[in-house]
Design goal:
V-type ATP synthase subunit C fold; mainly alpha; 18 helices; 3 domains; 358 residues
Length: 358
């Protein structure tokens, strides 16, 4: 046990040092005041937290999409660097980023197939999807990325993911005459699979503080995603509740089984928020000033991860917390860059930067 704690402490020290190099609130304010995407890129390239990821980028010729790709690749590279100094016995605990990125890649490919109709691909004959991931990630995944890049229909997409855990659930979807299942159904079964895996990993591979943190983190994500969906359904699909209830994740963290139905049945939005302020997540929903329900979700991810990163007793979850914070930072940079591109401040554009209120 003592040896294990020493290994965790050493790893936690490295992770905390990495977090010390991340962007500050002052950095985001400086970027928001810039006049162009190249200016933001040059700033990031000189920053210790992003210098390595942007080393080969030429700021003067970059556009927003290229910067976003570089940031995401830098985040994935960080994931693999952290794994190299984490213990081999805990590798499965760090599957969350991989599972979620695999889900995003498959959905991105499927979006292109749907946009191109039954033939897939773009009008100019380009591939249905062009993966933009580091080679290290591709080697660790069971997705056939060469096959994914030339998918033209549902069957070819299934063939590209046939060696992954996503294949059994995707292959069981009902296929309409169009040959393409509903996008929302594809997203739901994949997201359900990812969270079921994360709950299983916590139960089978973790113990002590790591298990408690991972279960709390995963359970809260599920609860908050479902809360966000219920509130969206109330706002935009009130007459079709029964058609959308199937899109709620079939898991629960702290919420009672009836809570989501009661939340939907509340007479008005203010009543819904009163329920949320009396729920197990009251401390999250007591915050004010957020314009969108999803902001509460990211508020939780940020503050829970910060708390775990600074916990006096380090655990394997320390690295997961850091990776979550890095992902949030990437989202903040993308939002800030988009505001700069259109010449608006985040406040004027109604953009929420996670963690900037602290």
């Amino acid at each position: 046990m003592i040896a294990g704690l020493m290994r965790y402490a050493g790893s936690a020290a490295k992770v905390r040092a990495l977090y010390g190099k991340r962007l500050s609130s002052e950095d985001f304010r400086a970027m928001a005041a810039m006049r162009s995407v190249p200016d933001v890129t040059a700033f990031l390239k000189a920053h210790p937290g992003w210098r390595r990821a942007l080393a080969t980028i030429e700021p003067s010729t970059i556009h927003r999409g290229q910067l976003e790709d570089a940031l995401r690749q830098g985040m994935l590279d960080e994931h693999f660097r952290i794994n190299r100094f984490m213990f081999s016995s805990g590798v499965e605990l760090y599957q969350e980023p991989i599972l979620r990125v695999e889900q995003e890649e498959i959905l991105a490919c499927y979006s292109r197939i749907r946009a191109g109709g039954a033939q897939g691909g773009a009008a100019d004959g380009s591939p249905a999807y062009v993966p933009k991931l580091p080679d290290a990630y591709k080697k660790s995944s069971r997705i056939d990325f060469k096959a994914l890049a030339v998918c033209t229909d549902w069957d070819s997409l299934l063939a590209a993911v046939s060696k992954t855990g996503f294949y059994p659930i995707l292959s069981r979807l009902n296929i309409p005459e169009s040959g393409l299942p509903d996008y929302a159904s594809v997203e739901w079964v994949m997201q359900t699979y990812v969270f079921s895996r994360l709950f299983s990993i916590a139960k089978r591979r973790a113990s002590g503080q790591t298990r408690r943190s991972l279960e709390a983190f995963t359970g809260a994500q599920v609860d908050l995603i479902n809360i966000c969906r219920v509130m969206r359904i109330r706002s935009y699909f009130a007459e079709d509740w029964q058609n959308y209830i199937s899109l709620l994740l079939p898991f629960s963290g702290k919420l009672a089984p009836h809570f989501l139905r009661d939340l939907y049945a509340a007479p008005d939005e203010e009543s819904s928020y009163r329920m949320l302020r009396s729920s197990p997540y009251r401390r999250i929903f007591e915050q004010s000033g957020y314009r969108h329900i999803e902001e509460y979700y990211y508020h939780y991810l940020y503050h829970f991860s910060r708390r775990m990163l600074r916990a006096p007793m380090p655990s394997a979850f320390t690295a997961i917390a850091y990776l979550t914070l890095m992902e949030i930072e990437v989202l903040n940079v993308i939002k800030t860059t988009e505001c700069v591109r259109y010449g608006k401040s985040p406040e004027a554009a109604g953009v929420f930067l996670v963690g900037m209120e602290s």
